């Protein structure tokens, strides 16, 4: 369901597991003041960190549970 709707995309699949990507939904044009606000978010010497989670691979059920 999440893949069909475009919420999750399969970035790669290897013997060690799958790498999923969740695309960001951003407007085509940035709202006014966003860049100025972003530049004031971090103190000098600070930077944004990237978070990567390794999720366990669980077998999928053959049928969807009743809703």
Question: Overview of this structure, please?
Answer:
Keywords: Signal. Residues 1-17 form the signal peptide. By secondary structure, the chain is mainly β. The chain is 9% helix and 16% strand. It is built from 1 helix and 2 strands; from the N terminus they run E-E-H. A two-stranded antiparallel sheet has the order 1-2. A hairpin with a 2-residue loop joins strand 1 (9-14) and strand 2 (17-21). The radius of gyration is 18 Å and the shape is elongated. It starts with 8 loop residues before the first strand and ends in a 28-residue tail after the last helix.
End-to-end distance, in Å?
14 Å
How would the global form be characterised?
elongated
Q: Unreliable runs, pLDDT <50, ≥5 residues?
A: none
What strand line-up does the widest sheet have? 1-2
Can you count the helices?
1
Elements, N to C (H/E)? EEH
Helix percent reads: under 10%
Mean pLDDT: 75
Secondary structure: number of strands = 2
Name the structural class: mainly beta
Oligomeric state of shown chains: single chain
Strand content: 15-25%
Instruction: Give me the Rg, rounded.
Output: 18 Å
Largest pleated sheet: 2 strands, antiparallel
């Amino acid at each position: 369901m999440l893949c069909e709707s475009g919420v999750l995309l399969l970035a790669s699949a290897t013997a060690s597991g799958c790498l999923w990507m969740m695309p960001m939904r951003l407007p085509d044009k940035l709202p006014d003041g966003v860049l100025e606000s972003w530049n004031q978010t971090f103190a000098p010497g600070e930077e944004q960190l990237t978070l990567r989670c390794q999720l366990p691979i669980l077998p999928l059920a053959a049928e969807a549970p009743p809703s």
